[in-house]
C-alpha cells in the first residue's frame, strides 16, 4: 500500500554538501542566487504496478528550482508476505562458515556492499543474456541497481531488476554457503553449448559474498521474483544465527530487493555520504547504472573494456581525471589489451605535469589500480608495477585473476608475471612515443626523467631497456656550443630547431649524473 511520507528536510547547506547537485552548488556559490527557501514535498513513484519509491524534496532556492530540483528517492518496503512461512535450519557447515565470513574473512566491512552490487550486476547481466537466447524473459524495469539508505531507520536497501530467484534458487543459493548460482549459471550455459556469454561478464564465483552482509546487519530480508515467466515472489529472511524463513509474498517486483537492518556499530552505512564514496571506490565500473537515494552515482564507463578505436579523446580526459584525481590532461595514453599470456585489459596515462608531492620531496603513491572483471581488487596497487613507474596512472583489469574468497589476497606468482608484462609494455610504449614524437618526449623527459633514472638504478631486469629512453643533460649546436636540454627544448619552441640537435654524449652524462655508479656498469648500453 502506498503510504504518504512527510519528512522535514535537513539544512540546505548539508544537502548541498551531501548531494553536490548542480542546483545546490549554484545556490551556495552563485552571486545571483536568490534567498534560500524551505520546501518540503510529498510524492511517490509508481514503478510497474507497485509503488516502490518515495521522494523527498529538499531545501532549494528560487533560482535553483528553475534549474534542477534536488530530491531524494528512497526505496519503500511495500511487499506483503502472504504465504505460510517455512522454517529452515542452515546446514552445520553453513553455520560455521557463516561465522567465519561475518567475522574474519574480510579486512574491511565496507566490502559487503561491493559484494551486493556485484550480485546485482550479475543478476542484470544474466537477465540480459537470457533475453537474448530465450523468449519470455521480459524486463519489467530498466536494467539498473538502486540503493537507498535511511539514517532514521538505520537501514540499507539494494534492489536490482535482474534475473531474480525462484523458491528453489533461494533455498539453494542463499540457504547454502559456498553455493554459487552464478558459477552454476555459466556452467549450465557451457554444458548446453551454443552460448556466447563471456565469463568476464559474471563476477560471482565462490558463493560466499552474500554472507558478508552479516558483518553489518542484524536482520536480512530478501524479496525476490524470478524473471522466468509465471514466477511468484518470495520473501527470505534470517538473523544469521542459524536459521532462515521462506514465504510467498505479494507485490514483489521481478529481480531482487535486499533489506538490511544495520547493527548499531555499522550505522555509518546508513549515511549517504559513506555509501557514495564506497560505491565510487569499489563499484564505479560495474556496467549498470547505480542510483543512490535516487541519484545516479557511477558516471564513469569502464573504458578499458571498450574497443580502442571507440574511445574518444574527451572520454579519455574524463577517465584520466577520474582515476588520477587530477585536473590536467594526459600527455600520453596507452589503451592496451591482450589475451595471451594473460587476459589483460588496461588503460594507462602519463599526466601532463608532474604535480605536487614528488616536487615537494614526498614520494608519489602508486597510480594504477588493479581490477578483475570491473571490480576493484587493489586500489593504487603497490605490487602491480615497479616503484619507479609510480607516476603512471590508470587501470589494469585481469580477467583470470585467481582470487581468494575474500577477493583481497592474490597469488604472488600471478602478480609478478603481470608486473613483468606490464613493465615491458610500458617501456615499449615510451619507446614508441620517443620515436613518433621526439619533441614531446624530450619535454616529458625534463619532468619525468628522474623516474627513468631511478628505474635504471633499482630495476635490474629492465635497466637496459630503460636506458634507451634516457635523454641527456646536454645538447650541442652544430657549432659545438653546449646547451642544456631545457634550453634546447625552448629554442626549438621558438622555431630554431634546424640549428640544434640532440647529442648523446655518454661521457658528459656520466660525469654529471648522480647515477654514475650504475651507469658505469658495462651492461648498460646507451643509444640515441
Ligand atoms: N541479487 C541477486 N539476484 C539473483 N541472484 C542472486 C542475487 N544475489 C545472490 N544471488 C544468488 O546467490 C548466489 C550466492 O551469492 P554469493 O554472493 O554468496 O556468491 P557468488 O556471487 O556466487 O560468489 P562470490 O562469493 O564470488 O561473490 C549467487 O551465485 C546467485 O545465484
UniProtKB/TrEMBL annotation:
Regions crossing the membrane? none
Name the CDD domains on file.
HATPase_Hsp90-like (cd16927)
Q: Where in the cell is it found?
A: Cytoplasm
Q: Which GO terms describe its molecular function?
A: ATP binding; ATP hydrolysis activity; ATP-dependent protein folding chaperone; unfolded protein binding
Principal location listed in the UniProt entry:
cytoplasm
Q: Which Gene3D superfamilies match?
A: 3.30.230.80, 3.40.50.11260, Histidine kinase-like ATPase, C-terminal domain (3.30.565.10)
Q: Which GO terms describe its cellular component?
A: cytoplasm
Amino-acid positions noted as binding ATP in the UniProt annotation, renumbered to this chain: 115, 119, 160, 165, 173, 180-181, 205-210, 256, 407
Keywords attached to this Swiss-Prot or TrEMBL record, sorted alphabetically, are: ATP-binding, Chaperone, Cytoplasm, Nucleotide-binding, Stress response
- Cite the InterPro entries for this sequence: HATPase_C_sf, Hsp90_fam, Hsp90_N, Ribosomal_Su5_D2-typ_SF
Q: Which family does it belong to?
A: Belongs to the heat shock protein 90 family.
Would you tell me the protein name for this molecule?
Hsp90 protein-domain-containing protein
Amino acid at each position: 500500500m502506498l503510504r504518504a511520507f512527510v519528512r522535514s528536510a535537513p539544512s540546505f547547506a548539508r544537502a548541498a554538501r551531501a548531494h553536490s547537485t548542480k542546483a545546490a552548488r549554484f545556490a551556495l556559490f552563485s552571486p545571483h542566487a536568490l534567498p534560500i527557501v524551505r520546501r518540503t514535498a510529498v510524492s511517490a513513484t509508481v514503478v510497474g504496478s507497485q509503488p516502490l519509491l518515495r521522494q523527498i524534496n529538499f531545501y532549494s532556492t528560487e533560482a535553483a528550482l528553475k534549474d534542477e530540483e534536488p530530491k531524494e528517492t528512497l526505496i519503500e518496503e511495500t511487499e506483503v508476505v502472504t504465504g505460510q512461512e517455512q522454517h529452515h535450519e542452515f546446514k552445520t557447515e553453513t553455520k560455521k562458515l557463516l561465522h567465519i565470513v561475518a567475522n574474519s574473512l574480510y579486512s574491511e566491512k565496507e566490502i559487503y556492499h561491493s559484494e551486493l552490487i556485484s550480485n546485482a550486476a550479475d543478476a542484470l547481466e544474466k537477465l540480459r543474456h537470457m533475453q537474448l537466447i530465450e523468449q519470455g524473459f521480459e524486463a519489467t524495469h530498466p536494467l539498473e541497481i538502486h540503493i537507498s539508505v535511511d539514517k532514521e531507520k538505520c537501514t540499507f536497501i539494494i534492489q536490482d531488476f535482474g534475473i531474480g530467484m525462484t523458491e528453489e534458487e533461494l533455498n539453494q543459493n542463499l540457504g547454502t554457503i559456498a553455493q554459487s548460482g552464478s558459477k552454476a549459471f555459466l556452467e549450465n550455459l557451457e554444458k548446453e553449448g551454443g552460448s556466447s556469454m563471456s565469463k568476464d561478464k559474471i563476477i560471482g564465483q565462490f558463493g560466499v559474498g552474500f554472507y558478508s552482509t552479516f558483518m553489518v546487519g542484524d536482520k536480512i530480508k530478501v524479496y525476490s521474483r524470478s524473471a522466468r515467466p509465471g514466477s511468484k515472489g518470495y520473501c527470505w529472511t534470517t538473523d544469521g544465527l542459524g536459521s532462515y524463513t521462506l514465504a510467498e509474498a505479494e507485490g514483489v517486483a521481478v529481480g531482487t530487493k535486499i533489506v538490511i537492518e544495520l547493527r548499531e556499530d555499522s550505522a555509518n552505512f546508513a549515511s549517504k555520504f559513506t555509501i557514495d564514496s564506497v560505491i565510487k571506490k569499489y563499484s564505479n565500473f560495474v556496467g549498470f547504472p547505480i542510483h543512490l537515494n535516487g541519484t545516479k552515482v557511477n558516471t564513469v564507463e569502464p573504458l578499458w573494456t571498450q574497443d580502442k578505436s571507440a574511445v574518444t579523446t574527451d572520454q579519455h580526459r574524463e577517465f584520466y581525471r577520474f582515476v588520477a584525481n587530477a585536473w590536467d590532461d594526459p600527455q600520453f595514453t596507452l589503451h592496451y589489451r591482450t589475451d595471451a599470456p594473460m587476459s589483460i585489459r588496461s588503460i594507462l596515462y602519463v599526466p601532463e605535469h608532474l604535480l605536487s608531492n614528488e616536487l615537494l620531496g614526498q614520494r608519489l603513491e602508486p597510480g594504477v589500480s588493479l581490477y578483475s572483471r570491473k571490480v576493484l581488487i587493489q586500489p593504487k596497487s603497490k605490487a602491480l608495477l615497479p616503484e619507479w613507474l609510480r607516476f603512471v596512472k590508470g587501470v589494469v583489469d585481469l580477467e583470470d585473476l585467481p582470487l581468494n574468497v575474500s577477493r583481497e589476497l592474490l597469488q604472488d606468482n600471478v602478480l609478478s608475471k603481470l608486473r613483468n608484462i606490464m613493465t615491458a609494455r610500458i617501456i615499449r610504449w615510451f619507446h614508441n612515443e620517443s620515436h613518433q614524437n621526439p619533441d614531446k618526449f624530450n619535454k616529458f623527459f625534463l619532468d619525468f626523467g628522474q623516474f627513468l633514472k631511478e628505474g635504471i638504478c633499482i630495476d635490474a631486469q629492465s635497466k637496459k631497456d630503460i636506458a634507451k629512453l634516457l635523454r641527456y643533460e646536454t645538447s650541442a649546436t652544430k657549432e659545438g656550443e653546449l646547451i642544456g636540454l631545457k634550453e634546447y627544448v625552448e629554442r626549438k619552441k621558438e622555431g630554431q630547431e634546424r640549428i640544434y640537435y640532440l647529442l648523446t654524449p655518454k661521457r658528459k652524462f656520466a660525469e654529471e649524473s648522480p647515477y654514475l655508479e650504475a651507469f658505469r656498469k658495462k651492461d648498460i648500453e646507451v643509444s640515441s
